[in-house]
Each structure stands twice: as structure tokens, then as C-alpha cells.
Write a structure and sequence with these properties.
It is found in: Membrane. The chain is mainly α. The protein contains twelve helices and two strands, in the order ααβααααααααααβ.
Length: 372
Amino acid sequence: MGETNQPPPPPPVAAPPSMMPMPMMAPAVGAGAIHPPHEQFHHLAYCVHSNPSWVQVAALAFLHYLVMLGSTVMLASTIVPAMGGNAGDKARVIQSFLFMSGINTMLQTLIGTRLPTIMNASFAFVVPVLSIARDIDSNDFTNNHQRFLHTMRTTQGALIVASILNMILGFSTIWGAYAKKFSPVIMTPVVCVVGLGLFELGFPQVGKCVEIGLPMLILAVIVQQYVPRYFSHIHERITYLFERYSLLLCIGIVWAFAAILTAAGAYNHVSPKTQQHCRTDKSFLMSSAPWIKIPYPFQWGTPIFTAGHSFGMMGAVLVGAFESTGAHFATARLAGATPPPGHVLSRSVGLQGIGMFLEGIFGAPAGSSVSV
């Protein structure tokens, strides 16, 4: 029938790949973040890789220092009088807290998690420190200063022994293996409880001088929450300044208000307790302590080691580790960084134990955790 055996047609040859460059995708917020971009907090101005100017860094650092200073003074005001210390002793304890907070912050930001977290004296240590103070009978000493020194030495010994627990959990990677079980359901209540726990001590302090504390509370809420929203149409810099530096403005205004009331004699005929809480010249912290003082090892004397107090302090050390771990997860989320892996958390807890060991040596009566 005229049929011919012709070879089949060759298969179609694929077109060569185009040499045009592919468009580059914008990286996620915080280079290396594993969260999808739509889950990032785009309203935040800075992430973990941001590099703001030195002026902004200095202002924000001073703001963080003021926030940390308030909780440090509150903690020292709670435990030092119970230990038998006076205003000079409280000032030196505050200096020791601030010095060791700086050391521990550098350890964590340079070696530990390397997240933008500030280490500060933890309120988890209030219970064991007050328990030690109650166990030491004041009748065994001729004056309160001797009782204070003995209580400080006992607290130092308990903190030194208890810090070894964190070092074991951290450097043995046990804590990192355990941290893999953490989830947002666990971490969120931990961080919330840490922050809300300060209200137990903070609000009674506000109530001791209502005419100063209440205006500060109202002014802080108005300036932080309402002023940036309702005055943003005037200039965008207003929102920028009030969102970042509102606390500095509130502290300056309320402190000037308290100084005016003190100079005008508003508290001349009130009880000594009210004067101590409301006047700006009755804390005696500035007059009873040197302007510059660097803590040195065993400044209160040789530590006293007791088994019962050491085991009680271990509970606070574990609470501090949980506080810091929850805060590290929250900080990484807010800063656009990846969640800290197990080995990083282990290293962080181990360094936190080293920091507590140094705090016991340098005379800080409480250990540190991440300031929430």
C-alpha cells in the first residue's frame, strides 16, 4: 500500500534555561528567622540584627537602666531592713546588685544566648533570704549591724552552694534536653507570672505615697498609650519619641513634682514614715554611701555555709532558671530571632550559675535572672 518505514520524529528539545537573573526575595525579619514573614511583628522598629545610632542606643540603655534600678531598689528595700541593715547598708547592697547585673548581662549577651536581655536581681530570692533573716536571732548580737553582717555572710554561702546546681544543669546539657519539651502553652504563663509577680511588691509601694505614686501611674498610662495615637497627626516624630522615651519623661515630671512638694513644706507635719516615702530628701541613700564604689570579693566577711539554707536557696535558683528560659523565648520572638536551641539554653543556664556564684563572692544577697 505504499507504506514506508520512517524513523519516529525526535523528541522536543527543552529550551535552554534563561540567563536572566532571578529576582531576589526579601529576607525575613531578623536574618535567619524560621517564622514565616506574616508572623513577624512588623510594627517593631528594631530586630536582633538592627544597628541604631549611638544616641538612640545611649538613650534606650539609660531607659533600661532606670527600669532595672527601680526593681533593684525595691528588692533591696524589702530584704535589707529585715536583715538588720541601715540606709548605708542598703545603698551598698544596691551598688553590689547593679555591679553584678552588669557583669551577668555581659556574660549572657556576649557568650550565653546573645539575645538583648538584661540580667537583674530576681524577686524569686526574697523568700529564702527572708527565711534566713528570720532564722538568725537578733538576741545573739549586740547591734543590728552585726546581725546584718552575719545574715549577709549566711546568704552568701547559701547562694554560692546553690549556684552549683545551675552550673551542673547547664554545662551537662540536661537543661537543654529538658527545654525541648517547652511549648508556648508552658512559656507564656511563666513569663506572665514573672511580670505579674512584681505587682505584689510594687502596688503597696505606690500606696505608701498616693500623691506621688498615683500621678505617676496615670501619667505613664496616658503618655504611653494615648499621646502617640492622638497627636501623631502633628508630626511623626511625636509618636517616635513618646513610644520610646515616655518613661524618661514621666520620671522627670513626677520627680520634679515630688521635689516641689518637699521644698514647699507639704510633708513637714506628717508622720516620719510618710516623710520617708514621699519626701525626696529622706531616703539617705545618697548621703550614706560613696559616689563610686566597686564591690570586692567577700566585702561582708567570710561566707557561712549551712545545709538547710543552701537547699532553700536551690529552689530560688531553679525558679530563676525557669524565669530566664521563658524570657529568652519571648525575647527571641520579639526580636525577630530564631527560638534558642537546647545547647544555647544549656549554656545560658550554666553561665547564669557562674553569675550567681560570682554574686555570692562579691556580696550580692540575691541571684540574677532575666529582667522581664
